[in-house]
Amino acid sequence: MSDIIKLLPDSVANQIAAGEVVQRPASAVKELLENAIDAGANKIQLIVKDAGKALIQVIDNGCGMSVTDARMCFERHATSKVRKAEDLFAIRTMGFRGEAMASIAAIAQVEMKTRKHEDEIGTLIEIEGATFIKQEPVASAEGTSISIKNLFYNTPARRNFLKSNPAEMRHIIDEFQRVAMASPGIAFSLHHDGVEIYRLPASALKQRIVHLFGNNYNERLIPVEEETSIINLKGFIGKPEFAKKTRGEQFFFVNNRFIKDAYLNHAVNRAYEELLPDDNFPLYVLFIDIDPSKIDVNVHPTKTEIKYLDEKSIYAILHSAVKRSLGRFNISPTIDFDQETGFSSMITHKAPEEIVPPSISFNPDFNPFAADKPAARDSSYSQDSSYASFPKSYGSGGGKMPTSTKNWGSLYEIANHNPAQQSSLDLPGNEGDDQFVPVQKQLMQLHNRYIISQIKSGLMLIDQQSAHERVLYERFILHLEDRKGASQQSLFPQTVTLSPNDYELAKSLLDDIKSLGFEVREFGKNTLVIEGIPVDLGSSNINETQLFEHLIEGFKNSQQELKLDKRDALARSMARNSAIKSGTVLGQAEMNMLIEQLFACKTPNFSISGKPVIQTIGLTELDKKFDK
């Protein structure tokens, strides 16, 4: 039998390696930006076309490369950062594996112009599918400019797996934000299809966070700083009241490298215990500086996972530092037996002799029990009125009963309802079932959370928030299917400014959002104008801007947690954010309408999260509670 094991050609090996390193355009963006930082650049430009599918270009003013280095950087395992195996445990640079440029060159058309600061002329190199096409001298600016065109052009199967342009652009913005946040001292800019998305000047960390996420983040940040013999920790955490239902704004950096670590994330979440609901996640941007010899970054090709020598100590330091910052800024309760911090703002620094004690004035002849003179009495009140007669009867123990207390017994009369006047509201699929018989029109609200109604076999309890969510969800699904959601025009259109990431998401959902009944149009950079909202929400007490922001946030949460279809996630988010909440007072007409709409739904028994909406308590069960 002949030999069957063969050595793969370099072109095939490079394409296999590229599958690990470059999974989508955002992966190539990350590698190029990190190389520019390692080159010592203080100004980096990122230019993207067609969400990175047509062009990714990174221009930096770093050290540049010589002719030999320019050619060598596209070879596999060629790097300037590692010389021997021991260097892997002393890494301070972003890149070190020597695979990124070779992997990118294997699946794209690459053009690179580079020039060292001391050279007068630069080098141009063109590569297609790991094959060198051209290398020649060229006039170029100091630093390096790399253009990646037609990514995955020679691997169409990989290109077909790419998502829509807005989805891929969101991933690119995520990678850009992480790199820019890790290096606030470097100026960055991002352009997509000729539109400037970011222009970030060199600044401090807090200003960089505000430039990335918006001016309103300035008041949301709490500083964290801790220096120990194990790690140095610095950064910012978010105030609890600004927590969101998605994990998007959580960043860990170890030696300025972005990482994902569920263990350390748990340490931060524990510090927020009793300050946040279970389904809310705080903002944090935390930098951990640690001796490179105590960590291993060579765990995964994407370099987002790290192993620690003493992770339990890091966990404890992180947890205590975050908790102390929350307490220091009066976010969580603190106890000081010497002085209660809550009264510190009321303590004056005046000299004791300057403090004047408070004084009051009073009339010594005032008698609250003295009878009013007839002349002083208002003529609008008669002697028979409750105002005139109540004090007299109260003080003497006799006299006339106040008119306001007449017919008090009627408060306890129970109206006998005619069964013929009861509304027939049977649950679908339970016709003829004895426990679901016509519900009375006279309903009762329990603690402004549940609606109670009498049924033939006992008692029915309905969760008003879950019921309204179910009604709205099925209505919005119908609007998304037939594209006929009615809109109520706003008298004064509202503008909503989103983060670049959320703006790209909103643009991808714009057609479906309009199907729900929103009238929305694009208006400048990262800004939308809301000119109308769905008719179903006309009575909602939330303003258009908040409603739209909650809609986007809820959509991200639904897709992240449940991996739902786009339209289904949008309908769920809309229903949750616009439904009446527990604690809302409802009138008889509103309760009757809600129940009628609920029983008209396809699945009234369960909420959109799969929990029960309706509970029944039978007479037999009630009798048992009274030992009957």
Automatic annotation (TrEMBL):
Domain DNA mismatch repair protein S5: 209-327
Pfam families: DNA_mis_repair (PF01119), HATPase_c_3 (PF13589), MutL_C (PF08676)
Stored SUPFAM superfamilies: ATPase domain of HSP90 chaperone/DNA topoisomerase II/histidine kinase, DNA mismatch repair protein MutL, Ribosomal protein S5 domain 2-like
Record bears the keyword Metal-binding: no
Keyword Transport: no
GO molecular function (one): endonuclease activity
Domain MutL C-terminal dimerisation, chain residue ranges per copy: 442-586
CDD domains registered for this protein in UniProt: HATPase_MutL-MLH-PMS-like (cd16926), MutL_Trans (cd00782)
Keywords, comma-separated and alphabetical: DNA damage, DNA repair, Endonuclease, Hydrolase, Nuclease
Gene3D superfamilies in the record: 3.30.230.10, Histidine kinase-like ATPase, C-terminal domain (3.30.565.10), MutL, C-terminal domain, dimerisation subdomain (3.30.1540.20), MutL, C-terminal domain, regulatory subdomain (3.30.1370.100)
UniProt cross-references to InterPro entries, sorted A to Z: DNA_mismatch_repair_MutL, DNA_mismatch_S5_2-like, HATPase_C_sf, MutL/Mlh/PMS, MutL/Mlh/Pms-like, MutL_C, MutL_C_dimsub, MutL_C_regsub
Residues of the signal peptide: none
Family per record: Belongs to the DNA mismatch repair MutL/HexB family.
PANTHER family assigned to the protein according to its UniProt record, in alphabetical order: DNA MISMATCH REPAIR PROTEIN MLH, PMS, MUTL, DNA MISMATCH REPAIR PROTEIN MLH1
Biological role: This protein is involved in the repair of mismatches in DNA. It is required for dam-dependent methyl-directed DNA mismatch repair. May act as a 'molecular matchmaker', a protein that promotes the formation of a stable complex between two or more DNA-binding proteins in an ATP-dependent manner without itself being part of a final effector complex.
NCBIfam families xref list: mutl
Protein name as annotated: DNA mismatch repair protein MutL
Gene: mutL
